[in-house]
Amino acid sequence: MENLFSIGELAKYQKISKQTLIFYDKIGLFRPAYVDPDNGYRYYSAAQLDFLDTILIMKKIGFSLKEIQAHMQDFTIDSSLVLLRSQLARIDREIAELSLIRSRLALRCDQMERANASCKASDEVRVEDASVQYLLYEPVQAPFSFRDISIATKKCFAAAFQKQLPIFFQSGVVVPLERIRSGDFTQASQAFVLTENTDRAPNIRPTPSGQCVSLYHFGLYASIGRSYRKLLDYCARHGLEIVSDSYEFCINDYLSSNDESEYITKIMLFVR
Q1: Is 0.90 topped by the overall pTM?
Q2: Alpha carbon distances (Å) from 3 to 30, 43, 53, 116
């Protein structure tokens, strides 16, 4: 029809699908100028092209269709500035969040690479100075099985996501020293995820700081007893008194490998 575009023509010009235009029509966002009563074909006028451009640009900027529809019912330069400034602030927040996520993901990759290199070199006990780290805890329920540890870990991640806490995508557990001495190496009392110092959750606590002995355990978690025996023997031979529970940090776990033989756990015991 003269001075009108078919739905196929308009879709081709705008590089969108006909289904998109049909959907916009159904929700009342962008309706055709004319619908043929005989066959139901949709036609659009040249005057509508700028309106469609505005919709597609706003969608690209990040507005929802609902926001676009509400705005375009009656918009002025003032109302547009308010909306665009608001979206700019939203984008800035998303950029900051993505930047934070990227830095922590990079940290996780660095940890995995260092641990993997250590695996190829040795699995010897190290004495190091550890700084304070902040952990979001959840108690592990009796009988402290692998299932109970897994549930507590899931609760940590769920709480962190719900409260939008800044986490490092790394989990771990605390194993009481008395259980380690009695040979119950896998009976953790608490699960945790690594986070920052914040008052947005009551169950965030710092780790100890200072001198510790550490060891990377490679392989199945059920075999972690061999690494604990090595740590206990090292402390006994070097006259080191263990003054903390054990802090286990999962370096490579179910988040990064489907093969449990590739799991890497860093064990830390604070000493004097």
Answers
A1: no
A2: 18, 10, 18, 67
